[in-house]
Amino acid sequence: MATNLAPLSGGQLVVAALRAHHVEIAFSVAGESYLEILDALYDAPEIRLVTCRQEGGAAFMAEAYGKLSGKPGVLLVTRGPGACNAAIGIHTAFQDSTPMVVLVGQVARHQIDREAFQEVDFRRMMAPLAKWVAQIDLAERIPELVNQAFQVATSGRPGPVVLALPEDMLRDRVAAAVSGPYRAVRAHPGAGDLDELRRLLAAAERPVMLVGGGGWSDAACRDITRFAEANDLPVAASFRRQDICDNRSRVYVGDLGTGASPALVARIRQSDLVLAVGARIGEITSQSYSLLGIPDPGKTLIHVHPSAEELGRVFRPTLAIQSGVAEFAAAAARLAPVSAAVWTDWRAAARAEYEAGLAPSPAAAGATLDLGRIMGWLRRRLPDDAIVTSDAGNFSGWPNRFLQYRRPGRQLGPTSGAMGYGVPAAVAAKLVHPGRLVVGFCGDGGFLMTGQELATSLAAGVGPIILLFNNAMYGTIRMHQERRFPGRVVGTALANPDFVALARAYGAFAASVERTEEFAPAFEEAAAGTRAAVIELRIDPEVITTRTTLSEIRRQAEARGPSRAEA
Ligand SMILES: Cc1ncc(C[n+]2csc(CCOP(=O)(O)OP(=O)(O)O)c2C)c(N)n1
Ligand SMILES: [Mg+2]
Question: Environment class of residue 222 by beta-carbon count within 10 Å: exposed (0-12), middle (13-18) or buried (19+)?
Answer without folding.
Answer: middle
